[in-house]
Structures are given as C-alpha cells and as structure tokens.
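chain below, 203 aa
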Amino acid sequence: MMKVTGEGIVTAQPDKAIITLGVITENPNLTLAQSENNEKITNITNVLVQLGVPREQIKTAEFRIEPQYDYVEGKQVFRSYKVTHLLQITLQQIELIGLVVDTAVSQGANFVGNIQFTLSHPEIAYNQALSLALHDSYRKAVTLTQTLGVTLCFVPQNVTEITTPTPTPLLYSASQLAKSTPTPIEPGQLQVVARITAEYCYR
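prediction:
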C-alpha cells in the first residue's frame, strides 16, 4: 500500500464582492459628532439603495465612539469625540463596485477598507478542484509503481480531504483606489485549491 497526495486547482471569476466603507467624524460635542455621522450614513445608504443595492445587503459592520486626547506637557487633554460607523456592503453586481465606492465617497464616506472578492457558490469550483486532486493522486501513484516495476490497483483506498472548500478571497486595498472617477477596480481571478491523500494498493 502506498500513500500519495493530490492537488487540484481551479481558477474562477469572482461574482460577489464585500465592501467595507463608512464615515468617521470628530467633534468636541458628542451630539454634533453623532448627528453629522448619522446624516452621512443615512445619505450613503439611501443613495446606494437608489443605485440598486438591496437594503438588506447593507449592514453595520462596526460602530464605536472614542474620546480623543492630546498630550500637552505630559498631561492628557481632551480634544474631541471620534464617531466611527462602518457599513458592510455585499454586492452581487461586481461591475458596480467602482460606482458604489465613488457614490459613497461623494455622500461623505471618508473610510474605504479592503474590498473582498469571492464566490457566491464556492462549492461548485471546489468540487471540480477535488476531482482534479484525485486524478493528480492517481497519476503520482502510476509514476511510483512504474518506477518500482509493480502493478497498481486502480481504485484508491482511504481517500481523505486535507483542505476545506473555501477559496482564498481576493483583497483589493483601499490604497489602490485611483483618484479618477469612476474608480477602476478589476477583481482578477480566484484560485480554488483542493488537496487529498489517497492510498493505493499494488502487487
């Protein structure tokens, strides 16, 4: 019995994007800081809905209020309150990403995080990669038995997955966003990898 590993790689075009963006405001008056932040977030949400983004796909990813301080002569001096409200936007129409980002910025968004590209149904590509991994293990077993001068049994035994069916998401950094409008964002390709181990008998 010999034990070999197999790997399968499938390249897929992303069909879903997850964007994190939002508004960060500062003001010595907490009420004013919250009011300004709420107004901008509401405007962003409403305009994105008008663009065709379903409201249920726009969710709060983070909300926090933090006092900000300066240090003067070794002493902590209160400066302002910082209000951060970030939205997570799930977008099925990835061709609209640039427009969504530009529109949000025009409505007051001053934070755009990494844009994550992924697949709506990763299991389809993973199953293809899994099949390729099994074929790869067989080719390796054939090579080994030919080298040893023995006969390989075709059916593998004890096939085990050694990866999970989750593609590595592509991240598009906010620092890559161009200053021009519309913002050009190309998702590229995702690689879905499957790995297995399989045991083959020989005689």
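Helices lie at 30-51, 97-106, 122-148. DSSP finds three helices and eight strands in the chain.
thats it, cya
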